[in-house]
Amino acid sequence: xxxxxxxxxxxxxxxxxxxxxxxxxxxxxxxxTAIVQADAKSLETIIKKTYELLVMASEIERVRxxxxxxxxxxxxxxxxxxxALALSDFLNRLDRDSNYRLKEFGSSLKSILQRLxxxxxxxxxxxxxxxxxxxxxxxxxxxxxxxSDINTYSSGKNPERKQTKRQSLMLNASA
Length: 175
Description:
- This protein has a single domain, classed as Methane Monooxygenase Hydroxylase, Chain G, domain 1 (Up-down Bundle), CATH 1.20.58.
- Helix content is 73%, strand content 0%.
- The protein is built from four helices and no strands.
- Helix 1 packs parallel to helix 4 (96-147) and helix 3 (87-93) runs antiparallel to helix 4 (96-147).
- The radius of gyration is 29 Å and the shape is rod-shaped.
- Residues 149-175 are annotated as: Disordered.
């Protein structure tokens, strides 16, 4: 494979991967909104779309790494001792023009993946907070039910109706 061909192929793969991860990042932003609004249907749709995009991105990454491996073989580059190919090692072995062109895409991909990682962590914290609020609300409701007087009639010769003593429970719906 000629240098122009593999360089063009790797460039295209990087662009596709960057676009997919950008779409996943956008979905994670939408996911935050769905979590805050407690919109389960939207959240389910977003999770399915995210999964589909991640599967596609994984396949593109596999093809990209295979292409890099082919370039290693065609250029007779020595494979790293660890056995795992690293993009930085690959770029360091290329000529300056190819290195510059691919390094820009590698940096963009790394930046998007870093932002995506931060957003995923943020969404995990949001979900845990929502679960905690829901658990505490359920606990408070159970406690109030146990505290209230449930008997409505007295026993004995002349049963009389008693007023139940139910306490109010104030919930913060926006939490």
